[in-house]
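Here is one chain, start to finish.
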Amino acid sequence: MSDPPYDSASPASGPEHWLLLGVCGAGVSNLCHLLRAHHVLVTGSDSDTARLQQWAETHRTQAPGSALPPLATMNWQQLDDCELSRFTRIVHSVAIPDHLPLLARGRSAGCRIQSLPEALADFCRGTTQLCVAGTHGKTTTSGMLWWLLQNSGLATGRYIGGEFQLSSQPAHVVRPARMVLESCEYRDSFLTFSPELAILTGIEPDHLDWFAAPGAAEGSFQQFLSRLPTSGVCVVNADCPAAVTVAARVNRRIVGVGQVGQQGVDSAARTWTYAALSASGQPLSAPGRLRQDVLLRHRSGEQVRVRLSVPGWHNAANAAMAVAAGVELGLSPSQAAAALADFPGMQRRLEHRGVWRGADFFDDYAHHPTAVEAVLTTLRSCFPGRRILAVFEPHQCSRLRGLMSAFAGALSLADELYVLPALRVREMAAPGEALGLSRQLVRLIRNGHGQAKIAADLDHVAVTLDHVVRPGDIVVTLGAGRTDTIHDQINRRIQRDSAA
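Its structure:
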């Protein structure tokens, strides 16, 4: 680690100006936050002009006393007429193809062209990289690890694919010695990182447009863990056989974290075991929130109680892995547990969005059957006896097609379900195919005696909820796309009704 942490300017080159393509996506958006904290001049762009405007309005707001550089935005049409030589670097999300004509123009203009993973690796060079990888729970586990380190006095930088459930986000640590990095497997993005500690939350079939061949995902995760130094450590979900198998292939120290009583995985692989002791639906108006206690026990016999303000077995597992990693980094179990007690949760992860007509509204990013099942099971546990209405937008035709039966089983846990046409991203799929696959999902759920209907679009969902929501209902929007905007539509409706 001879290179220093990223410096936005050098005497030879002067300050940089970065153009970020796909800035409305969580990955590029969070790179934008990092760059601005380091006083890099940034211009953000996205193909969706309306979404870009909304994103800019949200992110131009600065915390009192902050002195961030101005944030500029340009839509793609404006970039067509822009002299790209004004930018020193153009960074694009992995969803944007390398053959985009704009990138060719940038190369001709002398810009450095990088994908998001490449640029992030540049930014983090010289820091101790603490990487969180896996099919599920990356954002929350990354947030938990950063939160407990930062609140234990270990100043740590962060790159996390989401924001905290706070009105104002915590300031970024400038030029940190260590970074928590949410590490995505899609298109092998995480193979640009150099982890010294890795958390592997689990491995399941996902990103079927990239990991089409059997064993392809496991191979990529093995390559990722192989990037650990020989002195590195992998904190692994010991209840996931695929994760344990992959970690065992890599000659690194393994810290296994498993659920008490879970069958099927050798208990000898577990350094820590955990049990979720309680989960309850507390009053949801501030400062109340959903809570649970987690008992974490080391194989030496030492144990610690973790008080969490996020519910669910999946969050108990996330917290257990984060605490185990914190202990590996020098904290005592009690320090790590205490620092996690006021963790606020991450946006779009079982986020309570408000109350309307006596119903509680939640939003979650869940776009895989396992995540959908975790959300609906948690809500059922926290709010027994209450009707659950779910709105689901499948993310990618390939994912829905490949995991159709699993989706049907998970979504059947809702009392009523409204399914939008599959969101066509990063793939060549016709609108008719997207609608047809969603209709197939609805038929499958109905054949199993579930209640499911097709919703033509987001506006249709808002109108439908206007007619079907009853006091006491739980309404949850699910998906990695645009379902969270339904809550904004409802809030605008409430404002109109209040004004009238």
